[in-house]
Write a structure and sequence with these properties.
Layout: E1 15-16, E2 24-26, H1 34-41, E3 45-52, E4 56-61, H2 64-71, E5 77-78, H3 104-112, H4 118-122, H5 125-137, E6 144-146, H6 147-152, H7 154-164, H8 171-183, H9 187-210, H10 216-219, H11 233-264, H12 266-274, H13 279-290, E7 294-299, E8 303-305, E9 308-310, E10 315-319, H14 320-323, H15 357-374, E11 378-380, E12 388-390, E13 400-403
Parallel strand pairs: 1-3
Antiparallel strand pairs: 2-12, 3-4, 5-7, 6-13, 7-10, 8-9, 11-13
Helix pairs in contact: 5-7, 5-15, 7-11, 8-9, 8-11, 9-11, 11-15, 13-15
Protein name: Cytochrome P450
InterPro entries: Cyt_P450 (IPR001128), Cyt_P450_B (IPR002397), Cyt_P450_sf (IPR036396)
Organism: Novosphingobium aquae
Length: 404
Amino acid sequence: MSTETLPSHVPADKAVRLPYFAREVVRDCPQETLIPEMHRTLGPITYVTNIFPGDKPGWLLTGYDDTMAMLRDAENYTKNGMGQWSQSIGENWLVVPTEVDPPMHAFYRKALNPNFSPQKMSAMKDDLRRRAGDLIDKFKDRKDCDFVNEFSERYPIYIVLDLLGLPQDRMAEFLVWEKDMLHSNDWEVRSNAVKNAVNYLKAEIAERRTSPRDDYMSKIFDFEAEDGRKWNDEEVLGHCFNLFLGGLDTVTSLLGNIFTHLARYPEQQRELRENPDRIVLAVEEFLRLYGPVTAFRIAAREIELHGQKIMPGEYVSVATPVVNQDPKLHESPSEVRFDRKAAHVALGGGIHKCLGMHLARLELQTALEEFLKAIPQFRVKDGFEVGYFVGNITFVPHLELQWD
């Protein structure tokens, strides 16, 4: 976007195209290079011309306090249709509860929260251990693994497919859809993947309407909204799509980032091996530094922030990887410190705090526990060069590990 095409309220010196949102693979760890550089060179609010998929513009907030204030302000910042998922295929359902504003949001969360409570999730611990162990058993004696393909892509997907009652043997197909939806900058590719996932979920929902099963998807039909009304098919679809999308990618991306870090910093890997009781706190620090997602709110009305006008309809970022390195909040923010106990927005904030946060934490903790128990000290495979995909989800697309 040239300065001639900038909206009139955007000063040229506040507009920039950032390499961090280039949606390409870079060689240097962005948490150690690009993000600290953004904090050094950018002000608290910047108009980034390529911040949204498809190289669309929006406002980047770099500060933790500004981001938390926005997350708590559902009146000035809306989430309605934020991801452009249904709109991209000519439909108009919302992702439930992620894209829903109050007051409907409260009805949805009231129905959903008990199903994702810490107690409900901790009851899944044995299943998580079994799923992780089954995957690790396939490569542990080989002394190397293709970590993303053989572990981090499959492990969280097993859990979500189990939860929804969807077939594990379609996993490869689901992975293609998920990558096209979340990692492509081409809106045609993205929309085709959305269409495939939505058509599949619609068929599964219709089948369960006729013949309910003993699974979570069938259970959603009994959830209530306002005045005791049962959820309709669009609401059921919106929620299943949310689980399908979020459950298939976020933990995978985090695991790739975490295990790359542990392969690059052997002394910290050793620390967790020798002190497994530190894994719970370590997961929080990994969430802070490697939380991969830049999400958005949409300005519901004209807003002024740090003297800059934001106009209705404009995107404003919840850039968790950037905000979590706010130097006003953290000392040496690009370093991992297992005793930091630091605030972060990796799991959102305000009314939209991540529905699956207890499950995500448990998945990450269990993966670390089981992997470190079963596999000796590991490192990046000889001759393999790590690459980092930068964009709205920051992740390691491929990771080869080896051990003695």
